[in-house]
Amino acid sequence: MTIPDTLVPDTLVPDTLVKDIAVAVPGATAVFRRYKIDFCCKGGVPLSEAATARGVDLALVLGDLAALNGDETEAPDATEALIPYIVERYHEVHRAEFPEAIRMARRVEAVHRDSPDCPHGLGDLLAIMAHELDEHQAIEEQMLFPAMLGGHYDLTHPVARMMSDHEDLGEQLEALARLTTDFVPPHGACTTWRALYAACQKLDTDLRVHMHLENNILFPRFADLSLVTA
User: Fold this and answer.
1) DSSP characters over 175-220
2) Which of 26, 79, 84, 158 has its Cα between 20 and 30 A from that of 140?
3) What does the DSSP assignment read for 157-180?
4) What does pTM read for this prediction?
5) How many C-alpha atoms does 104 have within 13 Å on its Cβ side?
6) Are 172 and 128 in contact (CB under 8 A)?
7) What is the CA 192 to chain-centroid distance, rounded?
8) What's the angle, vertex CA 40, arms to CA 22 and CA 114, rounded to 5?
9) CA-wise closest residue to 199 among 69, 4, 26
């Protein structure tokens, strides 16, 4: 069976294989762990069968999977709407998704440490990224964003710091792509390994869009970027 590149969570059907969902729906592994559904070694069964075996309500599992990735909405333009959108769509999502990616990376590195394709150091990289991003987002949420919403329009210096952080994050994303061979798992990789790379690819995509919204749309409203980039 050919595994689809992506699955739309709210259109999943009960006979979709657990392992296919784990690979194609970032965040699904956390849902499966919550219900103690094996998505790796015993993931080659329909979701309905796995739910029955665990004695859990299939409708609840499908509901949690559907909630992982609703339809993308276009970012609002007005500053007072854009800032809450960034916090909800990106800050909170990053905080929710990094721990699962780190857990899977540690697992893959431990189980497959002798494989020449093992992404040694991936767990550490993700942990560093998560820590630095958490500090970065806290500054935005506690200081920079309130200042913006409060009508302060000369924020060149704090914006410069945030954009410098973004440059560092961009370099980390390049390292992430190298460690995961551009998010392509090796032939024969287990479900956890493939789910890990899918999660990393989503993190990469989300972080790049997140930085775009701030660097190119939000920040220019509050800073002289010619001074920031000089």
Assistant:
1) HHHHHTTTT-PPTT--HHHHHHHHHHHHHHHHHHHHHHIIIIIIGG
2) 26
3) HHHHHHHHHHHHHHHHHHHHHHHT
4) 0.82
5) 27
6) yes
7) 15
8) 115
9) 26
Give, as one character, the DSSP assignment of residue 121: T
- Predicted local confidence at residue 123, as pLDDT: 98
Q: Measure the CA–CA gap between 34 and 213, rounded to whole angstroms.
A: 33
Q: Residue length, the chain?
A: 230
Looking at residue 6, what is its pLDDT? 54
* Residue 184 φ/ψ region, left for φ over 0, alpha for ψ in the -120 to 50 degree band, beta for the rest: beta
In sequence order, what are the residues at sequence separation of 6 or more whose Cβ sits closer than 8 angstroms to the Cβ of residue 137?
91, 94, 95
First to last CA, the chain: 53
For the chain (length 230 residues), average pLDDT per consecutive 10?
52 87 86 89 91 96 84 80 97 97 98 97 98 98 96 90 96 97 96 96 94 93 75
